[in-house]
Structures are given as C-alpha cells and as structure tokens.
C-alpha cells in the first residue's frame, strides 16, 4: 500500500462539503431529506423493506437509514482499498437474503457483502474473473443465489454465490453497459451493449442470445423492463433518446422521447407504467419523469442536485418517494409532489407571420394545475388522522392537445402590392429619424394600413427629442410623396433596372451623407431621448 | 472585365485566374507598383465587404468559412451584405424572379455588381485585389519584367519566405487548375497549364537565342520556381491523366536544356529518414481504396504530403483520420477557418514541430489569414493570445489544468464561448499529438529534396538484430499466454534464442499477479499497483541523455554554421562517431536543422515549460480516474453537445486505432496482440496521470521493455527529442509498418487523454457555474 491513496481523483478541489451533514425540509407534501455522503456517489440501492439505503461511489460506500427523521448513517464500509469503490451496487431484493449486497468496484471485481457479518470488513466474497470494469450487476428476482455482472470486457458472467467460480459466461461481442433480469420470467435477462444493440439472453443457453436488435445509434447505457407487460422494454443511450420497445415488433420503437443529454439510467414508475424517470451523465443535473404518451415536455422535473445524478430508485414502501444520488455526493429523498411541473409555466401560444402577411397562431388551453391538485390531495392525506393509507395514487391525466394552427390572412390588400409599394416608398435614409418616421407614416396611411401608420407614428414619438426643432415639421412637408401610378411599374428590362440602381445609390452623394447623418442621430446620448413606454 | 466564372454548383474553378493575371499585366502596371503591404491592407478592408461571398479562388470547403473572421460579431454576413448593396437587394426582389433564378442571379451577378461599384471608385482589376496572397503570387509569375521592383518592396518577411520554400502548392494558382475532381475540367486545366508552360518555353528559347551563352545556363524564373512542381506532377502524381501529359512536357523541357529531376525510390522521394520507403504504399497504388485516398490528398494541395504517405501505411486508418481532420479544420464549426490554422500553429509550436507549423502557416495564408499574425503571437488578437496558457498546460502537464484556466478564458472582454473553446481544445489536442507522429516517424519536410541514401547508409549498422529478435519472441510468447492459445510449435526458431527466452520467461512469470479465487479472502489479497507506479517513474532511462536535449542540438547546429571545416574537432563524441563520410554528416545535420531549428518561440509564451513526470504522491494534483471522466461517456457527450459531429468522427478514429491489428508480430503471424496494444495505450494514459482502475498496470512491465518505453515516452511527452536510434532500436524486432502502427497508437492515446483533461476542466467549470 505504501500509504498512497490510489483512489484519489480529480474534482475535489475547493469543495467544502461537510460529510454526513443532513438537511431536512418539511413541506406540506412530505419530508425532503438530503445527506452529504462526502464524495461523489455512483449507485444507490434499497433494502427489501425500504428502511435502509446503500449508496456508493469511487471513494464512498455507506448504508444509510431512511426514516421519519430523514437520513442517518448506519454503516460506513469505506477503507482505502479499491474493493470498496462502487460502480454499481445492488441490495438483494428478497427479504430472506436482506443481509446481502453486491457491488461492482472500479477494478473489475464483483464483491458480495454480508452486513450481518461480524468481521469488520463485512466482505463475504469477491470474484475476480472479469478483465475490465464491471458496469452493471443484477440479482435474480427469483433465485436467491444468482447474480449477473456485465463488464467492459465484453462478457456477462453469471455467479452462483455458493460457488467460488463463475458459473456461466455469456459472450456479447461488445462492451456491456447494462444487465437486467426480466421481472416476468425466471431465466431471461436483457443486456445493453456499446454497439447499440439490445440482447435478450436465457441463462440456460450460454452459446448465443435469444434475441438481438439494434436500438440506438451508439452506446446503450441503460435498459429497464416494463413492470407489467412482458414484451416491453425501455432503453436509453448516448444518442440522448429514450425508447420503449415492443419485442414483437422491434423494427421501430413504440414510443420515443428525445432528451438533452446521454440517458444513463431509466426507471419505470411502478404506480404507472407509462411513467419513466431518467437521468443524464453530463450537463443535466435534474431527474425527469416522462409520460411516454407525451414525449416533448417532461411531466415532472426533480431538482436539488448540483451535479449530475447517477442513481435513482422509488422507495419500496411509499412508491411516490424518489431517492436519488449524484456526483455532488448528495443522497436525496423527495416526494413526487415536490417535483416541478414544467407545464405549469410552459407557454402554449405562438404567433408567426409569413412573408404574405398571413398570421399563423396557435393557442391551446392546457390543464396547468394538476400538480397543485396532487399537492393538495397529498396535504389533506398527510393531515388526516388515518395514516395507514399513506400511499396516494398520483394521477396525471394527459389530455392530448390537438394543437390547431389557425391562419389569419389579410384579404383587403394583396401582399405583393403592399410590399412592393412600401419597399419603393418607405425611406430609411435622407432625413432625421423623426422626419423619416413621419414620412413612412404617411406612406402607410396612403395604403390604408392604419396599424402600420400607427406604428410609425409611435416610433416617431419615441425618437422625438424633448424639444423638437421646428425644421422637422418643415422637412416632413418637403419630402415628396410618391404618386400612386409609380407603384405598379416593375422594371422588366435589366438595363433599366441596373441604371436605376446605380442612379439611386452611387451618384447620389447627398444621400450617402444623409446616411451618415442618420447614423450619427442614432448615437444620441440616452438621456436626451425620452422613451415613452408603450 | 467579365465576372468570375463560377460554376452553378458552387465549385470554384480557376480558369479566370489566368485571364485576370494576363489582364493585370497588360492593363495595370501602375497597380503592380503599389507596395505589397498596401495590398494587404486593401485585402483586409476588402475582406470585410466580401465576407458574405467566399472568394471564387478558394477551394470548395472554404465556403463553409465562418465570416466572423477576426472579431466581428456573428451578424457580420448579414450586415455586410446590407451594407454594400441594399438597393440592389431590394430591386432584385422586385424583379419577381423565382427563388432558383434568384440564387443563380445572386451567385453570378453579385460579383458584377460589386465590380461595377469598385470600378467606379477605382479603375483597377477587381479580382486582383480580392485574394492577395495568391494573387500576389500570380502577378509575380506573370510579370517577370517587374521582378526587380517587386523584390525591392518591403514585404512581410515571413510570407516571402513561405513562397520561396514552396511548402505546398496552395499559393500557386496556376497549377491548381489541374486539381479538379471532374475529369473533363481537369483535362481542360492541364491543357491550360501546359499551354502556359509552353509559352514560357518558347520565350525561354527565344531569349536563349538572343542572349549570351551564360544566360542560357540560368533557366528563367518561371522554370526555377516551378521545376519541382512540374516534376512532381509528372512523376509523383496518382492521376494518370495528369502524369502522362506532364511527362510529355517534362521530356520536352529536358530536351531544351531545362533539368527536371526524375524522383526515384529511395532518393528525393522518401517521406521519412527513419526507414526506407519500401515499407509504404506507393502513390501509384492500384488498390481502389488507397488510390482514392491518394487522389484526394493530391487534389487538395497538389502534393501527397509526407505525413500522409506515412499514414497510408494503414489506409483504413488514414481515411478515418483525415475525415476527422477535415471536419475539425474545414467543416462548419464555431471557430473561423483561419483561427483554426492559427491555433494549430500554436499547438505544434509547443513541440517545436516545424513541419506542421509550416503547413499550417501556408494553409492559414491560403485561407486568407492576416500575414502579420505570422510574425508572432503578439500580432494576433488578444482572444487568441489568452489561449497561450491553456495551450501550454494542456500540451505538457494537462493534469494541472484547473477551472481557473477556463475561467480566465471565458470571462472579460475577449471571452471565449464554451463552444469555441471546445473546438479549440479539439484542435490543440490534434496538433499536440500530430507532433508526436511527425517526430516519431522522422518525417522529412515536403518538397525538399534530401539525399535519403546518404542518410540511410548507416542504418543497418545500428541494428542489434539478434537481441531484438529474442525480445520479440519473448513478448510473442507472453501474448500467447495471455490470450490462452499458446502452442508449442510456434516457439522455437533458434536454439540460442530459445535459451535466452527460457531464462527470461521464468523470471518474468515469477512476479505475475497472483489471482485469488479463495472462498473467503480478506481485503489484503488485493495487490496494490502502487509498486508498479513507483517503478514506472523511477526508471533512470527516462532521464534524457545529454545529447537529447534541445540546447545540445541548437548549440551543435550553431557550431556547424560558424565553423564549416573545423567541426571535426569540436563535435562531441557519441552520436556522430559512427558516421563515415563528411557528406553524410552534412545531410543528417540538415535534416536535424530542418526539424529542430529554433524560431517557433514567436508562437509560444513560456518556451521552457515541458513535461515533468506525473507524481502520484503529489499533493497539488490528483489522478484522473477514467471511471470518473472518460472519453466514451463524458468527453464524447460534451463534444456532441458543443461541437456536434466531431465526437462521432473522433470516436471512430479511436475505436479503429485501438482495435487495428494485422494479427502479426514481426515474423509471427496469427497472434492476438491486443494485450500488447492496450499495454501501450494505457501506458501513455498513465504517463499523464490518467488512471484506469480496471487495468493491470503490471502488464506494461511484462510486455513493454525499456527501450520501447523510452520511445513511447519520448514520442508522447517530448516528441521533439525523438532520435533515429530510438526508432531503429525500439526494443523489439518489428517491421517498419508495425513501428508506424505503434507510433499511431501512442499519439492517438495521447490525443484521447488530452481531450479528456481539456474537456473535463471545462465541464467542471460549467458545473461550478451552475451550482453557484
């Protein structure tokens, strides 16, 4: 060892975090508890009864108690040894084996811990047969002693924890990022690999996988089985997309959600299988809850972390509580009703003109208060004397919005005539701004476009200095107004067009000077221009 | 004058150039008398106006150039368009043409409109003022009469140097006509060029008849300058249609007494002075893939550069490599094209890599960069100067990068946006590692004839064949052991080697890692790799020998310069003692000087900063755990977000080089070398303190011997110190092609490592911004 902490890593400079400091915020809708684990966390897992939460990172490995009073430290495993680092961590899901925890440290081992062990290390077993990092581990939901590990070395290994050696090896031909047992079958598991394929394996068949289908462009980082439907599986990848697949038709996903960063973890919400939470491995520090039927805006957003979120789970006893851990070292539990509801403030009105002066607009009424109602419901439940039925069903009714784009067109004047007329007759150079505005107002007035005329007059007012010099008035009168018959003369001969082009611009030295004058006008110090707010 | 002949598909052809230069000769002699510096100023002011429309002389990719060339805001194209021709635009809409017509009109007539405007102001050749660097050259060429005048003019020193050295063809527009992907247009271009050559030849013959015999011995300026290009087009060109016709011309020229040197293999034509070019693909390669690549290289600059030739040892990698190179240097991106070249110059200057700097300087100028910047970093905008610190730390000690380095860049008047910075980091990483490729493979300057036979004379004497063979066999056996397909019949080749092998093997495997499959092991069975780290750092072989230092070489070259004859006495013993002839020494010296000449200090701030060994015990910095920040998960996503498109290309590049194998190790075939390759890869990462928890670092000691480690460390940490002896004695007996492969592994590993460090601090900076 030589006294060197080899697990030293970057990114701790200047971080003044107080290890094990707990922050509890009691809100109307429940307790938000945060504990600082001391260093970045990579994974989190809950004991079968939900009272304890194990969390770990490269330099932390602890078990926390989660109760009425929020988090508290139960066991600190940490030693300066790489076996105590955590890439992935899974508590055994069964009550009978609630003393077993499996971790995948960064050095490619698979380690089994026994929290009832009397030895100080609590280390039960370690397997060292992967040649690279183990990215993902999973306990079999049915068989007590079976554990899977998917590794960067391109294999998945199946361990029977009663045996000292690996029981089976599944060669995936690509780095494995995620393994997960199906909750519906005893022997089926899925694997997400770096080529972007989802592989479905049966543990009885070691030679080749049962199914394989391309799901993502680039790395798959996470897979999760649908909690109800046997054929559905959700995948997330480095291509920033969440996809829900029906394995009967893998040619295209059933639903897909485009997010803003690589999707590193996905978790179905047991209460409503249309709901899925996701977190990212860079840039996005929030956890988003998506409704797969409305893929554009997250239904809920859980805030609170100041670095990326690395692990998530729904509380076993009260499934409306989400526990998350992150690179910022925080372990956090918050009720679903505390999350932000982005649709509450989402603008739903949009307007846009096209060049033909037609106006397209959309404005829909959406239900902005769903989360508020949920909160109220939760509040009343919490205050009610009967506390046995604490779990509430949070219902978000997604009313599909048939966004109708309406188009309003100006039928009085045809576009081209107005446009050509204005382009010909508006002046932007050759006078003070005020005079130009006045001129343009008159031009607009002649064409009968009252709104435009009003706009010009307002602009004129805005630009008017406190004491308008008298010359402005005179100049307005001297500017020649265009004749109506000029409007329709569109030069069709190029020579004519070119000569007029040159005459207008380059031979008119005066207009060039005025141009400069106009630019100088713009540089009037701000205090001299009274701004009438409209 | 007619507007530029711009093809409808936007591809610029240069047919008009010839016409314009002839016109320039006949019409505007007075213009030529203007000083060239004035031209630069004109060019600069013109540039602002012309920003919206890329110059018709630029190659196709230049059309992507971000018009915000120097410090203009991003609205520049719009404002400049409106600023120059508001009425024209207005009128153009009024003509009621449909969009397609409008575009064509726009392309062709904007030119004429602008020209009319310009002609009104100044009766001069409009296109001549547009692209000064090339045009200057063109005028240079077409007006030999005014040569004396031109040479008296005080041009910026560096630029004229570039022309004389003839780094690439990019400045020389005449020959660019031949470089067209379309066969017909290329044919036309070749005809044009050959016509010009023939005209000059007639003139030359005419002059020769009139003048005295002495003048005949001096071929005129045209042939002096373009002789080498004609030779290259005739004998060193992947396009058969070009080479056959130029060969005819060359024969004609030779007949008339103008010497065109025919390059032969091993002479004039070797890309590297470390090995003989026989191990590389030839340019007339008939394989379709390689052929296409060579053609692409040639089309770009009219030359297959030496580093491309070396890269072509692995055509599949060369293709991927150049795809990503073109993307980061020429495709749409946050930084203007010329800035990218300049950042490339800065990056390569950190390793004193003249080869890259000269190429980038030439590209910088041909992309319309401001020549004054090339006087030194002080002449570049402040925003670029701010990058100096980041660049030098990233190049030599990336582990000491902190958020403060990013903060300095991202705040204040000349702030970098995150996207710009990310792009700059990608470019810097590329050129830092490319320096390792250039030095590590001993790449010779392009287009400068070097007598390679003389350089190579002593190459065989430097080899220690038997010992190296033994080393190779050892590692082959280890590899077999690791991959588990060890077979007895593969081993024994020579009884002596067999003996040495057995003795060394027994010692090797004795300290192999003890694997523990105990049922209930304690934590103590874990063997910490700390001992390995200590070993890695304590190799005294890494202390550079005195003759490997830069100062040594600089002093030496000065000595050679000052005392040409008495060098024999003053030269220290050691490296040169085995060299036999004075001539050979001279040519080696030349190569040395070309590669290691001082003078790039103008692009660097702190020239003394260099790599120091990463100290795992340091309190000032920490290891970068690959598990916390790695390429595939984090740097990739970061790049994808801020510089879309580059991530996939770079990922492909890294994947390909990491997995590239021919399943050979010297003479042994069908062997899994992955352990050897990953040992190199992770050793490079380890040199810079990037730690992979799941990699067994002991295997680096098992598989790489001291000489190989020396080479790897030199190439990745201070490539400018690479010596030819290191290449020849790389620890193992390897084929030259394998050595190139090994070098590519090293430089790509370094690139990935640097990208991780460079992007990690930016990410940390942004996270901190967010949390405050």
TrEMBL record, chain A:
It comes from the Eukaryota. Gene3D superfamilies: YVTN repeat-like/Quinoprotein amine dehydrogenase. GO terms for molecular function: zinc ion binding. This is GATOR complex protein. InterPro entries: WD40/YVTN_repeat-like_dom_sf (IPR015943), WD40_PAC1 (IPR020472), WD40_repeat_CS (IPR019775), WD40_repeat_dom_sf (IPR036322), WD40_rpt (IPR001680), WDR24 (IPR037590). The keyword Repeat applies. Pfam families: WD40. One of its GO terms (cellular component) is vacuolar membrane. GO terms for biological process: positive regulation of macroautophagy; positive regulation of TORC1 signaling. Keywords: Metal-binding, Repeat, WD repeat, Zinc, Zinc-finger. Signal peptide: none annotated. WD repeats lie at residues 127-169, 213-249.
Automatic annotation (TrEMBL), chain B:
Residues 69-87, 124-134 have a biased composition (Polar residues). Its main location: cytoplasm. Coiled coil: none annotated. Keywords: Cytoplasm. It comes from the Eukaryota. GO terms for cellular component: cytoplasm; nucleus. It is found in: Cytoplasm. Residues 40-52 have a biased composition (Basic and acidic residues). Residues 1-22, 37-87, 108-156 are annotated as: Disordered. One of its GO terms (biological process) is positive regulation of macroautophagy. SUPFAM superfamilies: AhpD-like (SSF69118). GO terms for molecular function: L-leucine binding; oxidoreductase activity, acting on peroxide as acceptor. Belongs to the sestrin family. This is Sestrin. It comes from Acrasis kona.
């Amino acid at each position: 060892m030589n006294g060197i902490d080899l697990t030293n890593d970057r990114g701790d400079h200047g971080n003044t975090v107080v290890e094990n400091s707990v922050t509890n915020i009691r809100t109307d809708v429940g307790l938000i508890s945060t504990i600082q684990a001391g260093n970045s966390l990579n994974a989190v897992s809950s004991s079968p009864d939900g009272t304890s939460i194990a969390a770990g990172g490269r330099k932390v490995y602890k078990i926390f108690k989660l109760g009425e009073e929020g988090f508290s430290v139960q066991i600190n495993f940490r030693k300066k040894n790489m076996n105590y680092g955590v890439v992935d961590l899974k508590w055994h899901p069964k009550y009978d084996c609630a003393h077993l925890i499996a971790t995948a440290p960064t050095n490619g081992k698979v380690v089994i811990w026994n929290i009832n062990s009397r030895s100080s290390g609590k280390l039960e077993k370690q397997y060292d047969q992967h040649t690279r990092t183990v990215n993902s581990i999973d306990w079999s939901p049915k068989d007590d002693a079976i554990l899977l590990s998917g590794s960067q070395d391109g294999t998945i290994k199946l361990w029977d924890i009663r045996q000292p050696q690996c029981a089976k090896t599944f060669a995936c031909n690509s780095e494995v990022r995620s393994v997960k047992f199906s909750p519906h079958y005893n022997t089926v598991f899925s694997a997400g690999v770096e080529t972007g394929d989802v592989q479905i394996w049966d543990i009885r068949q070691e030679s080749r996988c049962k199914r394989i289908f391309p799901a993502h462009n680039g790395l798959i980082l996470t897979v999760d089985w649908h909690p109800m439907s046997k054929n559905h599986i959700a995948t997330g990848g480095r291509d920033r997309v969440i996809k829900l697949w029906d394995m009967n038709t893998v040619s295209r996903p059933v639903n897909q959600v485009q997010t803003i960063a690589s999707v590193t973890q996905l978790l179905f919400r047991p209460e409503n299988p249309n709901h899925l939470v996701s977190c990212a491995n860079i840039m996005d520090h929030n956890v988003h809850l998506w409704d797969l039927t409305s893929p554009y805006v997250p239904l809920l957003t859980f805030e609170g972390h100041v670095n990326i979120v690395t692990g998530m789970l729904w509380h076993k006893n009260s499934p409306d509580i989400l526990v998350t851990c992150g690179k910022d070292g925080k372990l956090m539990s918050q009720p679903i009703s505390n999350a932000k509801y982005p649709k509450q403030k989402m603008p739903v009105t949009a307007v846009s003109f096209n060049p033909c002066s037609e106006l397209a607009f959309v404005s829909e009424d959406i239900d902005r208060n769903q989360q508020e109602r949920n909160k109220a419901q939760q509040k009343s439940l919490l205050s009610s004397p009967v506390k046995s039925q604490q779990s509430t069903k949070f219902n978000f009714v997604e009313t599909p919005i048939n966004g109708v784009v309406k188009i309003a067109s100006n039928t009085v004047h045809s576009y081209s005539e107005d446009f050509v007329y204005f382009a010909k007759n508006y002046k932007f150079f050759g006078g003070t701004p005020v005079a130009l505005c006045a001129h343009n107002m008159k031009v607009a007035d002649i064409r009968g476009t009252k709104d435009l005329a009003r706009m010009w007059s307002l602009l004129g007012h805005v630009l008017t200095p406190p004491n308008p010099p008298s010359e402005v008035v005179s100049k307005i009168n001297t500017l020649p107004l265009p004749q109506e018959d000029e409007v329709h003369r569109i030069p069709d001969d190029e020579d004519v067009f070119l000569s007029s082009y040159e005459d207008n611009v380059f031979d008119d030295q005066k207009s060039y000077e005025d141009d400069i004058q106009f630019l100088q006008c713009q540089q009037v110090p701000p205090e001299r221009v009274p701004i009438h707010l409209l | 004058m007619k507007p530029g002949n711009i093809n409808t598909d936007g591809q610029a052809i240069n047919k008009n150039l010839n016409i314009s230069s002839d016109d320039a000769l006949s019409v505007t002699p007075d213009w030529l008398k203007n000083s060239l510096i004035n031209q630069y100023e004109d060019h600069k002011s013109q540039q602002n106006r012309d920003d919206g429309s890329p110059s018709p002389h630029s190659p196709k990719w230049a059309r992507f150039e971000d018009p915000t060339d120097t410090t203009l805001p991003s609205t520049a194209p719009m404002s400049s368009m409106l600023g120059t021709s508001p009425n024209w635009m207005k009128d153009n809409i009024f003509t009621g043409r449909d969009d397609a017509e409008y575009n064509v009109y726009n392309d062709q007539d904007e030119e004429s409109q602008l020209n009319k405007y310009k002609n009104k102001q100044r009766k001069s050749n409009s296109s001549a003022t547009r692209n000064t660097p090339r045009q200057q050259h063109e005028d240079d060429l077409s007006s030999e009469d005014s040569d004396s005048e031109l040479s008296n003019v005080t041009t910026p020193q560096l630029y004229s140097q570039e022309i004389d050295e003839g780094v690439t063809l990019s400045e020389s527009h005449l020959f660019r006509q031949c470089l067209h992907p379309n066969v017909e247009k290329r044919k036309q271009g070749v005809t044009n060029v050959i016509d010009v050559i023939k005209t000059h030849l007639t003139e030359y013959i005419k002059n020769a008849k009139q003048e005295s015999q002495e003048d005949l011995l001096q071929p005129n300026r045209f042939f002096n300058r373009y002789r080498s290009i004609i030779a290259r087009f005739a004998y060193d060109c992947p396009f058969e249609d070009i080479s056959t016709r130029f060969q005819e011309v060359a024969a004609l020229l030779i007949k008339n007494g103008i010497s065109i040197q025919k390059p032969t293999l091993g002479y004039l034509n070797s890309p590297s002075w470390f090995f003989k070019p026989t191990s590389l693909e030839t340019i007339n390669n008939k394989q379709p893939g390689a052929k296409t690549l060579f053609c692409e290289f040639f089309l770009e600059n009219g030359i297959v550069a030496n580093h491309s030739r070396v890269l072509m040892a692995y055509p599949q990698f060369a293709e991927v490599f150049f795809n990503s190179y073109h993307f980061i240097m020429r495709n749409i991106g946050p930084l203007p094209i010329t800035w990218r070249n300049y950042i490339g110059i800065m990056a390569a200057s950190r390793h004193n890599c003249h080869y890259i700097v000269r190429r980038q300087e030439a590209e910088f100028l041909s992309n319309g960069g401001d020549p004054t910047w090339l006087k030194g970093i002080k002449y570049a905008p402040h925003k670029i100067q701010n990058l100096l610190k980041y660049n030098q730390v990233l190049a030599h000690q990336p582990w000491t990068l902190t958020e403060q380095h990013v903060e300095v860049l991202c705040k204040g008047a000349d702030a970098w946006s995150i996207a710009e910075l990310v792009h700059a980091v990608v470019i810097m990483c590329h050129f830092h590692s490319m320096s390792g490729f250039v030095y590590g493979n001993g790449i010779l300057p392009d287009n400068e004839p070097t007598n390679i036979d003389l350089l190579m004379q002593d190459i065989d004497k430097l080899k220690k064949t038997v010992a190296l063979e033994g080393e190779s066999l050892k590692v082959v056996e280890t590899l077999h052991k690791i991959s588990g397909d060890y077979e007895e019949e593969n081993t024994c080749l020579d009884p002596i080697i067999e003996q040495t092998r057995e003795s060394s093997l027994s010692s090797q495997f004795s300290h192999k890692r003890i694997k523990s499959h105990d049922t209930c092991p304690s934590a103590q069975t874990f063997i910490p790799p700390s001992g390995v780290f200590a070993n890695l750092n304590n190799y005294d072989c890494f202390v550079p020998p005195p003759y490997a230092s830069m100062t040594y070489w600089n002093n030496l070259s000065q000595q050679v310069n000052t005392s040409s004859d008495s060098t024999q006495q003053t030269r220290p013993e050691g490296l040169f003692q085995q060299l036999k002839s004075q001539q050979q020494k001279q040519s080696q010296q030349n190569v040395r000087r070309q590669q290691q000449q001082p003078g790039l200090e103008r692009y660097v701030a702190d020239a003394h900063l260099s790599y120091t060994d990463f100290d795992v015990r340091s309190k000032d910095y920490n290891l970068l755990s690959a598990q916390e920040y790695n390429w595939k998960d984090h740097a990739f996503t970061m790049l994808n977000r801020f510089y879309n498109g580059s991530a996939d290309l770079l990922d492909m590049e890294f994947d390909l080089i990491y997995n590239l194998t021919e399943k050979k190790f010297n003479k042994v075939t069908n062997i899994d070398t992955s352990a050897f390759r990953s040992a190199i890869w992770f050793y490079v990462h380890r040199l810079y303190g990037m730690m992979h928890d799941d990699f067994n670092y002991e295997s680096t000691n098992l598989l790489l011997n001291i000489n190989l480690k020396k080479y790897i460390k030199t190439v990745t940490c201070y490539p400018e110190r690479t010596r030819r002896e290191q290449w020849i004695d790389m620890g193992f007996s390897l084929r030259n092609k394998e050595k190139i492969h090994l070098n590519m592994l090293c430089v790509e590993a370094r690139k990935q490592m640097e990208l991780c460090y460079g992007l990690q601090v930016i990410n940390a900076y942004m996270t901190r911004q967010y949390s405050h």
